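Posting for a labmate who doesn't have an account.
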Amino acid sequence: MKKYLLNLILLLPIILMGQTSKLYFDYSGNTFEGNMPLPAEEKFQISGKVSAEVDLVRVEVFKDENSRKGSIYSSTWKRGQDALAENFTVQMYNKLRGSAEYDFHITYYRGVTDQEYVYTKNQIEEQLRIYLLNSIEYSTKKWSWNKTTGLIIGDLNNIIKDGLVNFTNSRGNEFSALSDNVKNSIEGKEEVRFSKDEKEFVGTDSFTNQQLDNIVAQIMNEVDQYIHNDLFYAFDRREILQYPTEHVKNTVAINVGYGGVWFDGGSKNFNYDHGPYLGVSIPFGKESFAKPFWNNLSISTGVFLTNFEDGDGNKVTGPIIQRPIYFGLGYKIVRFLKFQAGATLLETKMPGEEGAFDFGKISVRPYIGLSAEFNFWMDFAK
């Protein structure tokens, strides 16, 4: 019994670390967990009630709803084998920044019937054909497009997007743009010359259909990749704007270490000194968002706590504060131990010499050091 209890105690931190925060979306109140802030810098789940007609729920997160970049993250729940499910749950793997605000769109979809699928597809196809017909100009010997290829492709993309604005698929790969294959087909039809026998068909439906059928069919084949047998219709949406995340306290990284500074000389007459130093570090990345390399890399600055002495017996200090000042890069090699290297700003004084600051005695020399880093929590005033 004691053995099992000991194992449980040892595993408890791991179990707690693996737990994910769960939030409940209140549909009627259009809020999360009674207006509680969202978890910051950690993964979480969102769940809520769904009626029997809901087959798919998509949650989208926006940093700025008016941004042209669109959502920064989306997650989807699809009704599975449990046809009687009364709740949805989506995983939010994108960590939110603390002390910030985000916009949320929660969209409810129902499945599309075969008849609705065919009707939607036919409507898009008809709009494409009408647009292409209106983009043709005829002359005695040829027909050609009355717009540039780029403008035609842009308009065709917009027609498809407008036709699918209230639809989605469970895979999340929404239609973005037609391929270069369609562009090449349109450019290939840029100028079609008629033979003597074809002149009588110019401007007639039979001639026009013959020329455009292949282009429209090619476009619809690409559209089918996004909607074929996996189409859902959005019948309800809830929007939560400027919802706050938890307030996150700021941290200051303090470095306490020991390092050496090289003054001059080579391997046979190496001139250096060493001593303890104290400073602060600013990481290149934040732990919850950046890759490990950038989390471990930081820029550091501080002072050596004692002055140095060079090979000639001169006092080596620093300008203004009378202590050597260092600037460098640091890399965390273990959890809190950091290797640092950079440059020191020094001022050399002859024996017995004191006095005002002298630019002529200022020098910059390299240093290396090893330090322990400690994070101190600070809550700065707004």
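Reply:
Got it, the structure tokens are right above this. Confidence is low (pLDDT under 50) at residues 1-18, 199-205.
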